[in-house]
């Protein structure tokens, strides 16, 4: 079964980076959807309908931006974006939630924002984070995939190998040179099926110069379809 991928999207520049990364991962065999979290329901029905229509239109623009006008869309009402996406991921059986980097992150670097950090602390799905400015990479191919894992958990390596099989990439030692994607594993204390990072793996995100995919413990993500690049 193709992995379910949800992009956290609010039409900001950084979330357009997330959209670009979501499209890239979907090209490796995933089913892509968009989600927007509204924070405050309106007490007046007319106002509530207006807000809902605006949220729907925002997500529709995201779909059009990647040539997928019929893309599945979710509007969630929750006080916290991170918690709302957590609940959506559990309800939908989501495999990967994709984020852009935090606002004002330096171009080409990765920095989890508040919502991504929430899912990186026990969340039910893998978390992918795009570098700032990733939307400007008009043609991006995954050729070198690095893996950082802790203990005996095979989920990061198995995820990287499945991506390599779908993209024609190579799984390489992350230390010597530049990467196109970094797959990192959860700490040994993480519950199976949950993402939870150690200080070492958290640091590896902050020093990455490529998209990062943090995988739940003992739950690899399988990408098996023919790869479609962003060219």
In short:
The chain has 231 residues and is an alpha/beta fold. It is 32% helix and 20% strand.
Explained architecture:
The longest helix is centred in the first third of the chain and has 21 residues. The protein is an alpha/beta fold. It is built from 6 helices and 11 strands. It has a single domain, classed as Rossmann fold, CATH 3.40.50. The two termini are 26 Å apart. The protein has a 9-stranded mixed beta sheet with strand order 3-2-1-4-6-11-9-7-8, with helices on both faces.
Q: Could you say what the CATH architecture is?
A: 3-Layer(aba) Sandwich
Rg over CA atoms, rounded to whole Å, is 17 Å
Main beta sheet strand tally, sense and closure: 9 strands, mixed
Adjacency order of strands in the biggest sheet: 3-2-1-4-6-11-9-7-8
Number of domains: 1
Sequence of secondary-structure elements: EHEHEHEHEEEHEEEHE
| Backbone structural class | alpha/beta
Which band does the percent of strand residues land in? 15-25%
| Quaternary structure state of the chains depicted | single chain
Task: Show unreliable segments.
Answer: 227-231
What proportion of the residues is helical, as a percent range?
25-40%
How many helical elements?
6
Distance separating the two termini: 26 Å
Give the CA-based shape.
Answer: globular
Please tally the β strands and state the result: 11
CATH class categorisation: Alpha Beta
**pLDDT average, as an integer?**
93
């Amino acid at each position: 079964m193709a992995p379910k991928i949800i992009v956290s999207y609010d039409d900001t520049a950084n979330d357009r980076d997330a959209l670009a990364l979501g499209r890239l991962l979907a090209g490796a065999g995933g089913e892509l959807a968009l989600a927007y979290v509204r924070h405050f329901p309106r007490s007046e029905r007319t106002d509530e309908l207006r807000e809902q229509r605006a949220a729907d239109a925002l997500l529709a623009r995201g779909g059009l931006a990647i040539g997928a006008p019929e893309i599945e869309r979710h509007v969630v009402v929750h006080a916290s974006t991170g918690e709302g996406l957590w609940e959506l991921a559990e309800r939908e059986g989501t495999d990967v939630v994709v984020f852009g980097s935090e606002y004002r992150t330096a171009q080409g670097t990765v920095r989890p924002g508040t919502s991504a950090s929430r899912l990186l602390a026990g969340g039910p799905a893998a978390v992918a984070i795009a570098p700032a400015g990733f939307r400007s990479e008009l043609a991006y191919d995954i050729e070198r995939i690095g893996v950082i894992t802790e203990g005996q958990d095979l989920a990061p390596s198995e995820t990287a190998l499945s991506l390599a099989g779908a993209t024609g990439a190579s799984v390489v030692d992350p230390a010597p040179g530049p990467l196109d994607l970094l797959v990192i594993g959860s700490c040994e204390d993480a519950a199976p099926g949950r993402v939870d990072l150690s200080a070492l793996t958290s640091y590896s995100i902050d020093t990455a110069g490529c998209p990062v995919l943090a995988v739940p413990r003992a739950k690899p993500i399988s990408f098996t379809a023919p790869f479609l690049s962003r060219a």
